[in-house]
């Protein structure tokens, strides 16, 4: 490819990524607003608002409107050449998936799981299949598996495998409901199947893939032997770790044993990851600015807590406690989806130049968001502990939770506005000059 043409593809791919990141970030703002509405319903119920229907909208937009496109953008950028990233195929995939998310956002609050919302969610699943197929085909053509990113791409392929595997949960809902098993153990375990392989599989492995991609891209030496061992242990542990999600039905002892073995393997894997990263943590953190570095550390802390908490649920008593107290479940999910995955994504986007903490508004925004997240997590887990200890509800608990939760959408709005006015690393004049030179050729 001619250097001039290569520059055009590079700039256009970067410009598209910036636009898409802003769309995904806007969805993040919507998630914060929906979450605040959910918490307000416990303070003063709103006539005509169905909590469960609104919760479905909140969760679907979070998983499919923010986290999915964010990783979609990151994986294209990390592993495919600029000319391949610029294919109309991926543009269609991105905007069609956003259309499906919009459909879910509008339909779930009105009807919950109904004909319209199910149609849009099904369409999104089919779009993910298209992305998996196209991305892996283009990556194979680019010989990614045998190139400089061979290790990190193992994590990415595993992530895409788990993304496809998780979809078996939604597909099974039709037959389950048709056979009169709605809201039974089978019904809820199908939902947990979807959630487990989505956040412990797809999201976790995609983040780990991007982490190792940074090490490979910036040529930070790390122990390849132990890294491969870490990958294999994590991958094979993820499959039986699903059993931790079904302990609430009090299955046979063998299920507890297999789930516990998987959880223990993940703890061992965590220890191996620390062994790999500790000698090079200064080099890794040196890739990030002060604010992005702090957020990355928060993401790492959340990942450690996630792994340890998951191991704790392998114990029968802790498993029962976790599933009896909804506060623990909500706190855990937010720890994973916001504390671990979202914080890493934000740090990664800043490191790549798509988001910025240069303005005062952006720093205030992310600071308020972090404060709101930390405060709400403390309240959620503290209330769970109060219930466990038989102390009842924290005085004005729901009002307090709503009050600190205001910081989440407010912080995201400020951060989002700051990104619209920030100057990112795209030289539009260079793009125009390159196009002019190419036309002359």
3D architecture notes:
This protein is mostly helical and 441 residues long. It folds into 3 domains: 1-142, Four Helix Bundle (Hemerythrin (Met), subunit A), CATH 1.20.120; 150-355; 356-434. It is built from 18 helices and no strands. It has helices at residues 3-40, 51-79, 82-85, 88-111, 115-141, 150-166, 168-178, 185-217, 224-238, 253-277, 281-285, 290-312, 316-324, 326-351, 360-388, 397-405, 407-421, 428-440. It is globular, with a radius of gyration of 22 Å. Mean pLDDT is 90; it is low at 425-441.
Backbone shape: globular
What is the percentage of strand-forming residues? under 5%
Order of helices and strands: HHHHHHHHHHHHHHHHHH
Q: Report the average pLDDT across residues.
A: 90
Radius of gyration: 22 Å
Distance between the ends: 13 Å
In terms of quaternary structure, the protein is single chain
The overall number of domains is 3
What is the share of helical residues?
over 70%
Q: List the total number of helices.
A: 18
Low-pLDDT segments: 425-441
| Largest β sheet strand count, sense and barrel closure | none
Strand tally = 0
Structural class comes to mainly alpha
